[in-house]
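Researcher: I'm preparing a figure for a lab meeting and need a structural model of a single chain. I don't have an experimental structure, so a prediction will have to do for now. The sequence is pasted below. Please return the structure as tokens so I can convert it later.
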Amino acid sequence: MEVNGIQFDSGSAELNEKISEWLQWDKNENTLNEIKSLVKGAEWSALGERLQKRLAFGTAGLRGVMQAGFNAMNDLVVIQSAQGLCQYLAECYPAEADRKRGIVLGFDGRYNSKRFAELSACIFLAQGFSVWLYGRTVATPFVPFAVRELRCLAGIMVTASHNPKEDNGYKVYWTNSAQIISPHDKNIQASILQHLVPLESSWDLSALASSSVRDPYDEMTKLYFEQLSANVPRSFVTDYNRKSPLRFVYTAMHGVGYPFVERGFETVGLQPVVAVKEQRDPDPEFPTVKFPNPEEGKSALVLSMRLANELGSDVILANDPDADRLACAEKDGSTNEWRVFSGNELGALLGWWSIRCYREQFPDASLSDCYLLASTVSSKMCRSIASIDGLNFVETLTGFKWMGNKSVELMESGKTVLFAFEEAIGFMCSPTVLDKDGVSAACQLATMACYLRATAGQTLSDKLSELYEIYGYHYTITSYHFCYDPVVIERIFNRIRNLEGDQYPKAIGVGGKYAIESIRDLTTGYDSSQPDGKAILPSSKSSQMITFSFENGAVITLRTSGTEPKIKYYAEMCAKPGQRDWNASRATLRTMVDAIVEELLEPAKNNLTPRSE
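Model: Understood. Here is the structure written out token by token.
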């Protein structure tokens, strides 16, 4: 077979066809040469991996390593994806007036992010859509914010969030400004497969000079911070923030967050953040961290803690590289040790704070139509708060796509959504942005710290302990093991489903010490706690997720990640208000987690790599 002067025969007609397509379609010299080199070296196995598998468009959009091949992030795959999305939008919104509503695109500071956004913009321009393209790097929340404020048809954010530097991604928001969910994800994937041949115009960046391209940066940042200001009670700004001696150390983790958090602090009257200089500005190499993810804990906050110790600052705030997540650490004054709060702990604090702010701004309003939301693998602390304080609590599937769309549904029915969170340090402190937002969360958490210090002499840790006294102690353990082989993952979960003959396990621990009360499997749709045995939450065979509820009150979930090669586990022990033996609760849950990992995941046998602490 010969294509463009290159002769080859892989021995597989299917692979030959895929090689031929790549050689004809790819106009990026670097990735084209990658495939040419593999062809010349007769590396058919490597070519099969890259070309016979396709990076699938799911509810997380696209995410993968940047290299040549249909299973990776590169110009050709981005063009094919944008063509498919464009055609699907045109089918959903065929009117000319709708095309003028347009689409908004943003990008982070990773390699190729700007180019991927620009290529996508040109594809929509060629089909007559108006385009709002941010002219500089932005925090991810500014894309869904713009979709809502500009009434765009959709939004695209080019980011791989906190993934390694080799990766990039493509996150899509629908007309309601929430992340896409089914059936849109499946329909977009089908549309992509119908429009794989890149149009000549799809490679032409000269279209960016069109008057149909506008930069929404100035307008959207002004409006965003106006709405942020409106969500913080004015008395808290004047009485606490402006008068507080607290200084906050901040790291952008080599990402895009600093200018937005800096302006946010100024907007709500906080003293300027003290940024970790080495990590303040976007750097696609992420040179000072092994993983650019503040969720990793102290290992990601070494420079922040050093700076805070030098300054005498007691609180550290950290965004992930696209600034949609927020981590926080606080120094214990009695031990001088740093405590990194978990996402569940921050969710409890910010959940309480959202109610406190609402009561301050609307003192005569009832809480009966107010809602707190959390994903099913997150702490049930907000459920406990809602139950005692007279609010409503809604649990969704994992991921802000579900909470964002549920928030839309609630607001359309006249309800008030105060707060939503997921344990992976994602917080929606108001429905201004229907997605997690690390910028507004940083400003709210810092305001809370100033308020607590001024009104009660409390630290964040003090307040968390007080909340446990009132609403019951909730102790959580979350971690993961790496598993790079999908076959092994499937084998692990199938074994769990058939551990005792063809049944799930009935207990874990030595001698079956910890009896299982019920099991919910959202891969198969089974739930033993329901009369008909069917789960209430939607199920999906595309990912693994099993939740065990134990007779002693513990809940442990095992699930696969949608974006990383991980098996994650989430465990929680919920005590009733007034129960004081917190140490025993912690010890029991640790023992149970150790047992479920060893007995069900079998890390040694399955060659699983634990999280590095």
